[in-house]
Design a protein that fits this description.
disordered N terminus, 186 residues, 5 strands, alpha+beta
Length: 186
C-alpha cells in the first residue's frame, strides 16, 4: 500500500514539473500571473471576481488548461521583470490577440471608468454647490490633484482635462481620441 502512494506522489511530482515552469523552487513569475488571472476570472470568492469574472472576463481555453502555454507565450511576446499583463480591450478576454505586457503606469492608465463616475469623462466631476463641472488631474510632480478649472458643461471640463494631459506630455487615456475644437472660456 505504501509503495503505491509513493508512486502516485512521484507521478504527480512529474506532472507538476514536466514543463519546467512550476517547480516550487524555480517557479517562473508568469506562473503566478496566470494563476492570479484564473482566480480573478473563475473563483467567485476572490475579492476582485466582480471586476473580472463577474463582468464576463474569461481566459483563453488553452491558457486556462495550461499554465506552461501562457508562460511560453509571455516569454515570446515581450514579458520582462517589472511588466504587467494588459488587456487591450478592457471588456475582452485574456487571450493572445487581446493581451500584451506594459509597465505598471501604462496598465494603470488603461483602466475603465469608475462605477460611480456620473460625468462620463475622466478627470471631471459635478460640484453641486457651485452648479458647474470641475476638471482636475492628479500629477505626480505636485503629489496631489491639480485644479484645471470650472466649466458650464461636462464636455468642456473633459476637453480641458485632455488638453492638460497633452500640455504636460502625459499618455493617459483621453476622453476624446481626436482633439475637440471647442473654444473654452478659461
Amino acid at each position: 500500500m505504501e509503495v503505491q502512494q509513493d508512486r502516485g506522489t512521484e507521478i504527480m511530482a512529474d506532472r507538476r514539473v514536466k514543463h519546467g515552469f512550476s517547480s516550487r523552487k524555480k517557479r517562473h513569475p508568469l506562473h503566478t500571473v496566470i494563476t492570479n488571472i484564473k482566480q480573478r476570472c473563475y473563483n467567485s470568492n476572490h475579492p476582485q471576481y466582480k471586476d473580472y469574472g463577474g463582468r464576463g472576463i474569461t481566459v483563453w481555453w488553452i491558457w486556462r488548461e495550461s499554465n506552461a502555454a501562457f508562460i511560453e507565450w509571455g516569454i515570446a511576446n515581450g514579458w520582462g521583470k517589472g511588466l504587467d499583463i494588459n488587456r487591450l480591450d478592457n471588456n475582452g478576454p485574456y487571450s493572445p490577440e487581446n493581451c500584451n505586457f506594459v509597465t505598471r503606469k501604462q496598465n494603470t492608465d488603461n483602466r475603465r471608468m469608475r462605477w460611480d463616475n456620473k460625468a462620463g469623462y475622466f478627470g471631471v466631476c459635478y460640484i453641486k454647490e457651485q452648479k458647474n463641472w470641475h476638471a482636475s488631474c492628479f500629477t505626480k510632480e505636485l503629489g496631489r490633484q491639480h485644479h484645471l478649472g470650472n466649466y458650464d458643461s461636462a464636455e468642456e471640463a473633459a476637453i480641458a482635462y485632455d488638453r492638460y494631459l497633452d500640455q504636460i506630455g502625459d499618455n493617459r487615456r483621453r476622453n476624446f481620441p481626436e482633439p475637440k475644437q471647442v473654444a473654452l472660456a478659461i
